[in-house]
Design a protein that fits this description.
about 130 residues, mainly beta, four-stranded antiparallel sheet, 11 strands
């Protein structure tokens, strides 16, 4: 089992930067790829970004490219997500997820491929 706890988020202004983190514990987290997803009210869960276990490979959802960075610190068992130029439509619950083994561009955005999930952190962007 892998336990994930997100932190950060809250109320931010449009145009500001979002910084959230995900602390992982349990099984060897450094062997797990990590991802961030988000879900807005009335919408399906949406892929934000993912990172390989080594941190070498990263993947981003189309809306996130160019303004989002995912990173990880395996010594701290923590994954980070930064998103710049926030918009009101970025308002959502942001979830951290983990999956064992390698990650590929063809499957990084598939939510059901991640067996472990955090409880999510609310991000509200005010205009």
């Amino acid at each position: 089992q892998v336990q994930l706890v997100e932190s950060g988020g809250g109320l931010v202004q449009a145009g500001d930067r979002l910084s959230v983190s995900c602390a992982a514990s349990g099984r060897t987290v450094s062997n797990h790829a990590m991802g961030w997803f988000r879900q807005a009210p009335g919408k399906e869960r949406e892929f934000v970004a993912a990172i390989s276990s080594s941190g070498i490979s990263t993947y981003y959802g189309d809306f996130a490219k160019g303004r989002t960075t995912i990173s990880r610190d395996n010594a701290k068992n923590t994954v980070y997500l930064e998103m710049n130029f926030l918009k009101p439509e970025d308002t959502a619950i942001y979830y951290c997820a983990a999956r064992p083994g390698p990650i590929y561009s063809s499957t990084a955005d598939i939510a059901r491929s991640y067996p472990y999930w955090g409880q999510g952190t609310q991000v509200t962007v005010s205009s």
